Structure prediction request, 162 residues.
Amino acid sequence: MIKVLFVCLGNICRSPTAHGVFEHLVAQAGLSDSIRVESAGTGAYHVGEPSDPRSVQEASKRGYDLSAIRAQQVKANDFQRFDYILAMDHSNLADLKALCPVEHQSKVALFLDYGQVYSEQEVPDPYYGGGKGFLKVLDLVEDASQGLLAVLIKSGGETDQV
Ligand code: 4NP
Prediction:
């Protein structure tokens, strides 16, 4: 079993989108028994809440169901539990690296390192912006999700990071 944790700040916009999109791709590939997906936020502002309705709606238009996801905060034992801990932006990455025990640091990376089409390094936070931001999140997340899945399939269950 490979375990993947997607992380943003609030766990209501970007990381739930990554969670839902990647889980969908994993299911389509018939790998739901081999790859486990979760998401969390570095902040606790929205713990227990459903994802932002704008994220849920835009994801739904592309066939992804985020409705069951509830926000949670990154926990100390997540660094043991997960094999891949993937940050949406550099700020999330720095916060995770500061929390992460030294022996697990190699698990923590930027999610868009797995992107193949877009050159962006960060998924921009759409929370305070307009609807276009949520579409951009989906575009970037779909691209990196495909790249990540290809790496995991190639690794054959080994947990080497890119
Ligand atoms: P997310 O977006 O990190 O993509 O979930 C945010 C949602 C809420 C807040 C910040 C970012 N907030 O400060 O409440």
Remarks:
- Residues 131-155 form the longest helix (25 residues).
- The longest strand covers residues 2-8.
